[in-house]
Amino acid sequence: VPDKQDLEKEARVLQALSEPVRPQIMDTLLACDLCPCVLRDVTELFDPRLSYHLNILEGAGLISSSSRKR
């Protein structure tokens, strides 16, 4: 039986992946080394919105800050 912390973590992951652009961001980060400008081009998001999505993915433990800084 999962404990409360496991369920909360799972909920954060599911919530983080519920926005269609976030799996796209993850796929792009996993596929290649890129600079932030390429990620902006792929997602068609401007910096504040892109940062928002990256922070949610990082908060859910799906990406690390090192995968964001190239």
Outline the structure in words.
There is one protein chain. With 70 residues, the protein is an all-alpha fold. Helices cover 71% and strands 0% of the residues. It is built from five helices and no strands. Helix 1 packs antiparallel against helix 4.
Topology summary:
Elements: H1 4-17, H2 21-31, H3 36-43, H4 47-59, H5 65-68
Features:
single chain; 70 residues; mainly alpha; 5 helices; elongated
The counted number of beta strands is 0
Following the backbone from N to C, one meets helices and strands in this order, namely HHHHH
* Portion in helices: over 70%
Compute the CA-based radius of gyration: 13 Å
Q: Structural class from helices and strands? A: mainly alpha
Q: How far is the N terminus from the C terminus?
A: 40 Å
- Principal-axes shape call: elongated
Q: Give the uncertain stretches in residue-range form.
A: none
Please report the number of helical segments: 5
Largest sheet: none
Give the amount of beta strand, in percent.
under 5%
Mean pLDDT: 85
How would you summarize this macromolecular structure in one to three sentences?
Helices cover 71% and strands 0% of the residues. It is built from five helices and no strands.
